């Protein structure tokens, strides 16, 4: 079978190559040797493009597959990719100046200088190179190394043979060839994104107290620290989130599984998805989306199984509070013995200025930091400092985990890949297969902090932050307070696969960025440690709406891919179903139809009452009243504490339906209504304006309306855009639904799949694929996936490109 499949695919490629005209820009790079390896032994691949510029890459081995993928990604995203490589080399200040900000795709650094100091330090200390030397499965496999090597070669070959037309980097000196180490360094940046990458500024700027400084500073306020940690590690308002649901065979029309994946990621910059099909005949055949710079599909499907990821609630780092030597603030004590911090001097080149050298301080636990975000200061005093521990700094296994998924034949194989490679740093996995099985698992690389360890070793600060946010602050002066090890864990100090919250073969398995608890409301997951997430607490509005929807779908049964498509674009507003009627009635009951704004001005809100009552409770582009309710709800939930917002409080016994019944008598209700009306009128926006007239993106000279809604509204189809009243409403959409896939099976060899890459394959405004799928998304239309040979060959847009070194 394997040999036959190889022959069929290679024969099909040869036929297509002989009969299909190449694009003019690439015809000169064709197969001069007349075979599948046009470069006479060099790396090569065949790329077949179908509608919307989606490439189907066929190669003979992993290095060739990486080559074709690197080439195709460069063709679509060369400027975004090149910008990311400048980041991981620590060269942003050299090219762009030290004070401007990166795009936050590879870290949370607020300035180029701190970004460079961190990534240059990673490069200088050989952190990534050492991980590459570790044998698999602790280190990357041979296949992944070949993919990475091939990706770098493909990217470089595209640069060498093509002219850049994207104005973002056309003619720029910072667009340079890359090495395999660069590609792995980008993967490393993604792995530490939730740990060290989140605190780059704090790592790069932490300095010991000056001689003669006061011996002590006030300890962080515990309550304030708990609030700050909760906000910092909340997945609710971040620019990354996701929904995913898998349905078991007995809920579907044909007994086979279904999967709907809806990641919420930035619409611009280096954290975009890019979609492709990757094929090594007889070895690998997978389709889906990957983050830019990755040589393998990360969210996708094959002929037997489909999977998606959602950003998880696990806290992938912790702190150790250090007790310092009174005579030297760069020496700390462990079990009474002094250990000197490691001093790392990092030098960064700076545009139009002399190089900058800064010192970083590292301990056995990790780097010293002086804050966790802007609201949680961790002062380094003469007697106390804090070190950040991130176990993902020794994890380069994400690609191997993804490759294991790509080869899986069912959800059991997905779980086996997770257990073998243990490489997911900050996401859950939801999967379904053609045999009708479902899977949810929070298989993350997390510090092995048990509730018992936290109770025994937390400092006073940790006793506040751990229950509130899962952020452990352990006593660094005690050796017995270091995270332990599980026997089935690939690396020390992390949880092994047996401890991961996992749900198998539930009628539905769903996650919308809350903890694992309600992956299925009828089969709640319990018993996991706090570092994985919370239990028995109020769920987000998006989780509540999602569970209501998918439970009803599973209960109805007879589901098909079309039902998944309907769910994606239902654009129901759970916050409106709970509260809009009450809000409209309370508004209409206001004396004289007026409410008093926060500035004391009486505002006529009678028109708003009518608009709210008439609104269809959706966030379609044509919805009138959605914008008014959106602005009102944001203002109301900021002003009124959750405990006062609802008449019926949250109950862990009824977590999907509570809290409910809006408390319209709460101080702030009428004020929020008045201020919303004032805001919209000042911006020149009609109270019954269509949502799509004020929520949009611009592609070329066209303004494309965008449906969907913000986090607080609980909309499955999440969309976020910054508000700019002076400019007339929302600026362009910045994040939300990205690589969407609805996948099922019908008994044939070809999966039934519909996909959408909401922002398109290319960020180059000169590309035809800059906005084509965005227009599809606006119209709530989908791309029918071409997975099997017959479907690829029948594409009316088929173009075949043979690429080589």
TrEMBL record:
Pfam families listed in its UniProt record: Penicil_amidase
Transmembrane segments: none
Gene3D superfamilies: 1.10.1400.10, 2.30.120.10, Glutamine Phosphoribosylpyrophosphate, subunit 1, domain 1 (3.60.20.10), Penicillin Amidohydrolase, domain 1 (1.10.439.10)
Keywords recorded for this protein, A-Z: Hydrolase, Signal, Zymogen
InterPro entries documented for this protein: Ntn_hydrolases_N, Penicillin_amidase_A-knob, Penicillin_amidase_dom1, Penicillin_amidase_N_B-knob, S45
Annotated signal peptide: 1-27
Domain of life the protein comes from: Bacteria
The keyword Glycoprotein appears for this protein: no
Keyword Nucleus: no
Family to which this protein belongs: Belongs to the peptidase S45 family.
Protein name: Penicillin acylase family protein
């Amino acid at each position: 079978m394997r040999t036959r499949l190889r022959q069929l695919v290679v024969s099909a490629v040869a036929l297509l190559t002989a009969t299909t005209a190449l694009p003019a820009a690439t015809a000169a790079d064709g197969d001069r040797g007349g075979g599948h390896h046009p470069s006479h032994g060099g790396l090569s691949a065949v790329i077949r493009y179908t509608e919307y510029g989606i490439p189907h890459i066929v190669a003979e081995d992993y290095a060739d597959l990486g080559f074709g993928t690197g080439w195709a990604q460069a063709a679509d995203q060369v400027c975004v990719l090149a910008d990311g490589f400048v980041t991981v080399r620590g060269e942003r200040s050299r090219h762009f100046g030290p004070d401007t900000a990166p795009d936050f795709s590879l870290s949370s650094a607020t300035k180029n200088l701190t970004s460079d100091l961190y990534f240059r330090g990673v490069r200088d200390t050989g952190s990534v190179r050492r991980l590459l030397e570790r044998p698999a499965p602790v280190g990357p496999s041979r296949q992944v190394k070949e993919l990475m090597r091939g990706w770098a070669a493909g990217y470089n070959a595209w640069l060498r043979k093509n002219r850049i037309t994207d104005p973002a980097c056309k003619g720029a000196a910072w667009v340079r060839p890359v090495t395999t180490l660069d590609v792995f360094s980008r993967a490393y940046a993604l792995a530490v994104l939730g740990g060290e990458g989140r605190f780059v500024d704090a790592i790069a700027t932490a300095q010991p107290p000056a001689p003669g400084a006061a011996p002590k500073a006030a300890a962080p306020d515990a309550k304030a620290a708990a609030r700050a940690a909760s906000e910092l590690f909340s997945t609710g308002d971040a620019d990354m989130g996701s929904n995913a649901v898998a349905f078991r065979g007995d809920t579907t029309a044909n007994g086979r599984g279904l999967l709907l994946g809806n990641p919420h990621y930035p619409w611009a910059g280096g954290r975009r998805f890019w979609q492709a099909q990757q094929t090594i005949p007889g070895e690998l055949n997978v389709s889906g989306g990957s983050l830019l710079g990755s040589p393998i599909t990360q969210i996708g499907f094959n002929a037997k199984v489909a999977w998606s990821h959602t950003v998880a609630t696990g806290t992938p780092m912790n702190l150790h509070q250090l007790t310092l030597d009174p005579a030297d603030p760069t020496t700390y004590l462990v079990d009474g013995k002094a250990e000197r911090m490691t001093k790392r001097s990092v030098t960064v080149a700076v545009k139009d200025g002399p190089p900058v050298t800064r010192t970083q301080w590292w301990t056995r636990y990790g780097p010293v930091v002086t804050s966790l975000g802007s609201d949680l200061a961790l002062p380094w005093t003469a007697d106390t400092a804090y070190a950040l521990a991130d176990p993902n700094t020794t994890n380069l296994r994400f690609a191997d985990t993804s490759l294991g998924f790509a080869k899986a034949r069912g959800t059991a194989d997905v779980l086996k890949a997770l257990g073998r490679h243990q490489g997911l740093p900050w996401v859950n996995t939801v999967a379904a297969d053609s045999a009708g099985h479902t899977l949810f698992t929070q298989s993350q690389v997390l510090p092995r902090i048990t509730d018992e360890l936290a109770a025994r070793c937390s400092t006073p600060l940790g006793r506040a932050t751990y229950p509130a946010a899962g952020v452990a602050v352990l006593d660094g002066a005690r050796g017995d307070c270091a995270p332990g090890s599980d026997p089935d864990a690939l690396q020390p100090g992390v949880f092994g696969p047996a401890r991961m919250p996992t749900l198998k073969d539930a009628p539905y398995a769903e996650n919308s960025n809350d903890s694992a608890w309600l992956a299925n409301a009828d089969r709640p997951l319990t018993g996991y440690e706090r570092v994985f997430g919370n239990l028995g607490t109020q769920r987000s509005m998006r989780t509540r709406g999602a569970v209501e929807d998918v439970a009803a779908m599973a209960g109805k049964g007879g589901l098909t891919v079309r039902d998944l498509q309907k769910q994606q674009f239902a654009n129901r507003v759970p916050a409106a179903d709970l509260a809009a009627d009450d809000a409209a009635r309370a508004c209409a009951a206001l004396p004289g139809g007026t409410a008093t704004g926060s500035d004391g001005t009486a505002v006529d809100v009678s028109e708003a009452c009518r608009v709210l009552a008439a609104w269809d409770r959706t966030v379609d582009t044509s919805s009138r009243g959605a914008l008014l309710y959106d602005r009102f709800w944001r203002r109301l939930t900021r002003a009124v504490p959750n405990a006062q917002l609802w008449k019926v409080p949250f109950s862990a016994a009824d977590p999907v339906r509570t809290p409910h019944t809006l408390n319209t008598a709460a101080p702030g209700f009428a004020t929020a209504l008045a201020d919303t009306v004032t805001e919209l009128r000042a911006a020149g926006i009609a109270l019954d304006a269509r949502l799509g007239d004020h929520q949009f993106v611009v592609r070329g000279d066209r303004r494309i309306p965008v449906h969907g809604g913000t986090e607080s509204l609980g909309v499955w189809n999440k969309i976020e855009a910054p508000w700019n009243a002076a400019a007339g409403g929302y600026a362009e959409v910045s994040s939300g639904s990205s690589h969407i896939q609805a996948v099922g099976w019908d008994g044939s060899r070809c999966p039934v799949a519909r996909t959408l890459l909401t922002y398109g394959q290319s960020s180059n405004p000169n590309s035809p694929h800059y906005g084509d799928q965005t227009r599809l998304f606006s119209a709530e239309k989908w791309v029918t996936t071409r997975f099997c040979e017959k479907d690829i060959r029948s594409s009316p847009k088929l173009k075949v490109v043979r690429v080589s070194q």
